[in-house]
Specification:
It is a single chain. The chain is an alpha+beta fold. It has one domain. Helix content is about 15%, strand content about 40%. It has two helices and eight strands; from the N terminus they run αββββββαββ. The protein has a four-stranded antiparallel sheet, with no helix packed on it. The longest helix is centred in the N-terminal third of the chain and has 16 residues.
Length: about 140
């Protein structure tokens, strides 16, 4: 059976469109459970925190919502730190405005940051005056 020129052109166009279409974007859900025993070194303080986040692979945007309670005093700072395993410390990657016990924010990540985040190499850390290095910590995981 012979294909007409029009059919061949349409088929070639469809193949070209399919090849040019990028892989499907994905929104990835993340979470962290922050507590003193996750700090390095660990502490036995009663504070805790939670974080839920999404990462959009098409735009590189990280969006988060979180809360904390029971800290030894007001939060003086909060950050995403990385890259780090659960037993190591790392520098600040992105500051978080956690001036109130309920917080949210967004940030645009570069490729290296996104790779570390999605590999579980970031953690949430909330700091207080009494615990300047961090009072509660939680690894950010899928």
């Amino acid at each position: 059976m012979r294909m007409t020129t029009l059919s061949c052109t349409a088929l070639a166009f469809a193949i070209g469109i399919a090849a040019a279409t990028p892989a499907a974007a994905e929104v990835i859900n993340l979470k962290a459970e922050a507590k003193g025993t996750n700090e390095v070194p660990p502490n036995q303080l009663a504070g805790s925190g939670t974080l839920t986040a999404t990462f959009d692979t098409a735009t590189g945007k990280l969006s988060w919502k979180g809360s904390y309670s029971g800290l030894s005093g007001p939060a003086t700072a909060a950050h995403f730190h990385g890259p780090a395993t659960p037993t190591t410390n790392a520098g600040v990657v992105i500051p978080i405005n956690a001036s109130t016990p309920s917080f949210e924010g967004t940030a645009d990540l570069n490729e290296a940051q996104a790779a570390d985040l999605l590999a579980g190499r970031w953690y949430l850390n909330i700091h207080t005056d009494a615990n300047k290095g961090g009072e509660v910590r939680g690894q950010v995981l899928k």
